[in-house]
Design brief:
single chain, alpha/beta, Arc Repressor Mutant, subunit A, D-Maltodextrin-Binding Protein, domain 2, 3 domains, five-stranded mixed β-sheet, 9 helices, 12 strands, about 20% strand
């Protein structure tokens, strides 16, 4: 018996036609007959009965048993092939937002150092795009930022890394730079700059402004954090962001906001994604690293 014989037999059982089965595999009908004969010799019984007059094929009781089990055997063979191929690829993927991930990667990656040679970092600027990639299973684990602690999607698991308050940022020359706290009414006629749609920052800023009746019609939307910071530093605009996006900038002033919105940074895992065993192992290691980092941050805070 050959493994290919099971594929031939499964198709024959489904089509009940030697001609159609042979055509499906681009072989001759005698090849199908020979495969059937090998199977019948292997199992010591007839697997099909043929009505020569009507050219119909019917499975015997033994043929029914083999057909059902052949389905499971073929599925197991295909899964085995896939696992072996994936094991040989030796790749693990980790998604991250460069603005957020650059802060947490140095803390998390040392905990998964055994995977460094297989690591493929998937960088994406937009938090919404990253979330879609996780939700669809394109990637199974990522460090991302959300405007809420978690979603209602049951297939996603969230390991909180940080909860960050948004601040108002201005240049030292800005009229608001001397303030120690910002109330919404103080932002009348202010020109804002924020990240574009598709970023959690943009949604948080707009929701906060709407709740507190702050006019944001005079707002510039930028694709990159550097652009936002540069416009703030120029004195032309004020920005609302977390402090991780404004690191190493001595030319910007941070001012607390009244009822400031919060950004939630998490390691997100899609446990329904179709992934390799090595990716599963990596994801588990990342979860452990994220929980360890979260515990350290809680002790410090």
């Amino acid at each position: 018996m050959k493994v290919q014989d099971l594929y031939y037999f499964r198709k024959l059982a489904q089509t009940r036609s030697f001609t159609e089965t042979a055509d499906s595999f681009y072989v001759s009908q005698p090849s199908i007959s020979t495969a059937l004969k090998r199977l019948e010799e292997e199992f010591g019984t007839r697997l099909i009965s043929r009505d020569r007059s009507s050219r119909s094929v019917r499975l015997t009781e033994a043929g029914d048993i083999l057909y059902k089990n052949a389905q499971a055997i073929i599925l197991l063979l295909e899964q085995t092939k896939k696992e072996i191929r994936n094991r040989e690829l030796k790749e693990v993927k980790l998604g991250f937002l460069p603005t957020i991930g650059s802060h947490f990667l140095p803390k998390l990656l040392p905990e998964v150092s055994e995977y460094v040679s297989a690591l493929n970092l998937i960088e994406e600027e937009s938090s919404d795009v990253m979330y879609d990639m996780i939700q669809s299973g394109e990637i199974s684990v990522a460090i991302t930022a959300l405007d809420q602690p978690y979603s209602s999607d049951d297939k996603l698991t969230y390991i909180p890394l940080a909860e960050k308050e948004l601040f108002l940022w201005v240049s030292p020359e800005h009229p608001l730079a001397s303030q120690t706290h910002i109330k919404p009414h103080m932002l009348d006629n202010v020109h804002f700059v924020t990240l574009a749609k598709g970023y959690a920052h943009e949604r948080l800023f707009c929701q906060w402004a709407k709740t507190h009746q702050v006019d944001v019609s005079n707002t510039h939307y930028a694709q990159e954090v550097q652009t936002v910071n540069s416009m703030i530093a120029s004195g032309m605009s004020a920005g609302v962001m977390i402090d991780l996006l404004v690191r190493d900038r001595c030319d910007l002033v941070k001012i607390p906001l009244d009822n400031a919105p919060r950004l939630y940074i998490s390691l997100v895992i899609n446990h329904d994604a179709d992934i390799t065993d090595i990716q599963k192992e990596f994801n588990k290691a990342m979860v452990e690293a994220a929980r360890k980092e979260a515990e350290v941050r809680q002790k410090v805070e």
